[in-house]
Structure formats: C-alpha cells, structure tokens
C-alpha cells in the first residue's frame, strides 16, 4: 500500500485537489516520512497501546476496531457455534458409517457446501428469508442497545451463510481424524470387549482425534472475525471485515495495520488455546503430563 501511486491524503481531498493542499495534508498525517520510520513509530505506539489515528475517519484506530468488533465477534462466535454443532455429529456419523450410504450422503453434502460461493449464498438467503418469507431482516445492524433478540436476528442469516462452508470443511476434518483413530489398536480392543461401534468411536476414537479438529476450529475463528468481508458487505454489517475492506480502498495504512495486527494476535491466541485444549482432552498426552 505504501509503494503504490496515490495515498490517503490524495483520496481524502479528491483527485482534483491542489498539490499544495495535498502536500500539507500529507505532512499533517505523517505520510511525508519514509516508510520504515513511519512503521517504527507505529510499533512504538502499539507498545504503549496507541494504534494511531485513522486517516479516513480521523478517530483513534482502537475506538474504530472496538466499535466494529461488537458486530464481528458475536457474528464469528455464532457462526462457529453453528459450524461445530453441525460438523461434529455429521462427521461422526460419516466415520461410524464409513463406506455406507450415510457416509456418502454426508460427503456429498459437504462437497456441495464447499462449492457454493458466499456471495450467491448470502443473496439467496436475503431473497428467501427476508424478501419472500419475511422471517428476518435483509441487512443492517440495529445495535445491541436495541436488545439482544433484534441483534441476534440481524446476525442470524449472515451467521448461517458463514457457517455452511466452514461446517463443510470441519465435517471432512472430523470424519478423516475420527476414521484414522478408529483404525488404532485401542479402538479394536474396545470392540473386542463388546463395546458398540458408536460407543467405541465417541469414548475412545474422538478424544484422540481432537488435535486436528481443534486446530481447524481455531483457524476458522480467525477467518470469521475479519475474513467475512463478502458476507458483511452483502448484509450491510458494520464489522471488522467490512472496515478492513474500506480501509484498503481508502489507502488508510494505519487502520489496515491495526486490524491485521489484532486479527493475527487473535489467531495466535485462539490456536494456542485450542492446542492446550487438544492436549488436555487427549488421553495419552494427559496421562503423560
């Protein structure tokens, strides 16, 4: 963004602005300094909790991100809960009935869910549930001050649209991880002792298959927090993903840096937590510890 022609000052004043006015605004925004110097100064501010000022909105970046996170984080949590709630039983069913009709149906449904573009899925939901059936609003967010149910109602369709492809990915991961665990000796021993197939899978195979499952869950949460640009744009949601898109379009480097840093930190923290949970739920690792 720093080496491309043009900058936030030029976009803010317009393409026909006087060069003197653009130069003055560049100096005011600090854009006349070399890129390494600007970056080092920004890192110094981040170390003290100051993420800088947005050149587009002229407000602190922290305030902008906190305001938009009130939409993106609940949306991500709701979509993740739907994804896990669908993928876990579907993946277990496919693993238990592998090679049979339920397994083929689950894999086909997962492939279809992966193949549907998010843009088309969002528009289809708006037409079906908002325009035709009038069960949910077509877009926008009333704010949490309007109440819990209006806020959740505005996030319902976007969350489902986000959850479908993520659930499709997670279903295949669950099936693969559980199927590999089912081929281990301890599952065969459980079967030999008379335990039913479903019980052997849930009690013995699933705890040893959590590591890859939780890794994908952690990655999905990071994607859902700020990667849902298309869905937030389709449903006109003021979230972090849409803010990132607008910041890139407006060449607001400071805002882009702040959002990217927060998203990366979120992914690192969530993945670390998922690894810890996976180690704790794995019987072999827990007994070794």
UniProtKB/TrEMBL annotation:
It is a multi-pass membrane protein. GO terms for cellular component: plasma membrane. CDD domains: TM_PBP2. The chain crosses the membrane at residues 75-96, 108-135, 147-165, 213-235, 255-280. Its main location: membrane. Residues 69-274 form the ABC transmembrane type-1 domain. It is found in: Cell membrane. The keyword Membrane applies. The keyword Nucleotide-binding does not apply. Keywords: Cell membrane, Membrane, Transmembrane, Transmembrane helix, Transport. It holds the Pfam family BPD_transp_1. One of its GO terms (molecular function) is dipeptide transmembrane transporter activity. Belongs to the binding-protein-dependent transport system permease family. This is Peptide ABC transporter. It comes from Acuticoccus sediminis.
């Amino acid at each position: 963004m720093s080496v491309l022609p043009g900058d936030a000052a030029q976009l803010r004043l317009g393409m026909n602005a006087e060069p003197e006015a653009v130069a003055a605004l560049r100096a005011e925004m600090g854009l006349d300094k070399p890129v390494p110097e600007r970056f080092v100064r920004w890192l110094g501010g981040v170390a003290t909790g100051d993420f800088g000022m947005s050149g587009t909105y002229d407000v602190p970046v922290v305030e902008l991100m906190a305001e938009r996170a009130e939409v993106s984080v609940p949306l991500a949590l709701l979509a993740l809960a739907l994804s896990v709630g669908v993928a876990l039983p579907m993946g277990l069913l496919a693993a238990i009935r592998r090679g049979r009709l339920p397994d083929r149906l689950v894999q086909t449904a997962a492939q279809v869910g992966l193949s549907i573009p998010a843009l088309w899925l969002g528009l289809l939901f708006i037409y079906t549930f908002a325009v035709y059936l009038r069960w949910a609003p077509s877009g926008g967010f009333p704010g949490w001050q309007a109440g819990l149910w209006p806020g959740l109602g505005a996030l319902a369709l976007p969350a489902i649209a986000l959850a479908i492809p993520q659930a499709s990915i997670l279903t295949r991961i669950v099936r693969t991880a559980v199927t590999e665990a089912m081929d281990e000796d301890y599952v065969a021993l459980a079967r030999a002792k008379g335990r039913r197939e479903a019980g052997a899978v849930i009690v013995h195979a699933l705890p040893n298959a959590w590591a890859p499952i939780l890794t994908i869950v952690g990655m999905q949460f990071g994607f859902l927090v700020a990667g849902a640009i298309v869905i937030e744009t389709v449903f006109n949601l003021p979230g972090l993903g849409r803010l990132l898109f607008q910041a890139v379009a407006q060449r607001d480097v400071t805002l882009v840096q702040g959002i990217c840093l927060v998203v990366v930190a979120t992914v690192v923290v969530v993945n670390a937590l998922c690894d810890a949970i996976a180690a704790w739920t794995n019987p072999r690792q827990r007994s070794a510890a």
